[in-house]
């Protein structure tokens, strides 16, 4: 089974339980906290992923995370299950899939916006407003810096891409 299929299956199961229990938002917040934690502490993620560390050490790490984030029993059980079933290495993808399901449920779309330099706050708000009009949904921006686009903006929502970068305009001129 591929990693994405596994992650989607576990994320969907947690999502369904969260929806049934009325705890979707709480689960979403916990997942965001866990994601931020593993991004800030790559050594923790490495320990969870590594086959060198035995399951009991991974379980101890997860138990500490459960305590640190004051997870409710359902979330705690889910995290322990991931260790028991040797699926903890898919945690990052599970969180991502869960967030996608939560966004779909709440009518939110994620827009990835790439620019060559950091965007000022007023320009971010304007882009979010325009993307919301285009998509007809509430938009959450994910900003990325990419100096290779030289200037302008490349925005993506799902499969739709709006490329207003100088790089693509130069490429179009080159192909004439």
Highest-level CATH class of the largest domain? Mainly Alpha
Strand segment tally:
4
N-to-C order of helices and strands: HHHHHHEHEEEH
Q: What is the number of domains?
A: 2
- Provide the CATH architecture of the largest domain: Orthogonal Bundle
Helix content: 55-70%
- Which residues sit in consecutive blocks of at least 5 with pLDDT less than 50? none
CATH topology of the largest domain: Peroxidase, domain 1
First-last Cα distance: 45 Å
**CATH homology-level superfamily of the largest domain:** N-terminal domain of the delta subunit of the F1F0-ATP synthase
Biggest β-sheet: strands ordered side by side in the sheet? 2-1-3-4
Radius of gyration, in Å, reads 19 Å
Instruction: Quickly count the helices.
Output: 8
Task: Give an overview of the whole structure.
- With 176 residues, the chain is α+β, with helices and mostly antiparallel strands.
- It has helices spanning 3-21, 24-40, 42-49, 55-68, 73-84, 91-106, 121-135, 166-174, and strands at residues 108-115, 138-145, 153-157, 160-163.
- The chain has 2 domains: 3-104, N-terminal domain of the delta subunit of the F1F0-ATP synthase (Peroxidase, domain 1, Orthogonal Bundle); 108-174, no CATH class.
- Helices cover 62% and strands 14% of the residues.
- It has a 4-stranded mixed beta sheet with strand order 2-1-3-4.
- β3 and β4 form a beta hairpin.
- α1 packs across α6 (91-106).
């Amino acid at each position: 089974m591929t990693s994405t299929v596994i992650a989607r299956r576990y994320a969907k199961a947690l999502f369904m339980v969260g929806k049934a229990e009325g705890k979707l938002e709480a689960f979403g917040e916990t997942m965001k906290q866990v994601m931020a934690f593993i991004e800030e502490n790559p050594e923790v993620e490495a320990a969870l992923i590594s086959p060198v560390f035995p399951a009991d050490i991974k379980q101890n790490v997860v138990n500490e995370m459960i305590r640190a984030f004051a997870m409710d029993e359902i979330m705690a059980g889910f995290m322990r299950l991931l260790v028991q079933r040797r699926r903890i290495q898919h945690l990052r993808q599970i969180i991502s899939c869960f967030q996608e399901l939560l966004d779909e449920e709440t009518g939110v779309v994620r827009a990835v916006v790439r620019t060559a330099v950091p965007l000022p706050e007023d320009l971010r708000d304007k882009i979010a407003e325009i993307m919301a009009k285009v998509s007809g949904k509430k938009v959450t921006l994910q900003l990325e810096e990419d100096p290779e686009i030289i200037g302008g903006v490349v925005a993506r929502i799902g499969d739709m891409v709006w490329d207003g970068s100088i790089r693509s305009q130069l490429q179009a001129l080159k192909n004439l």
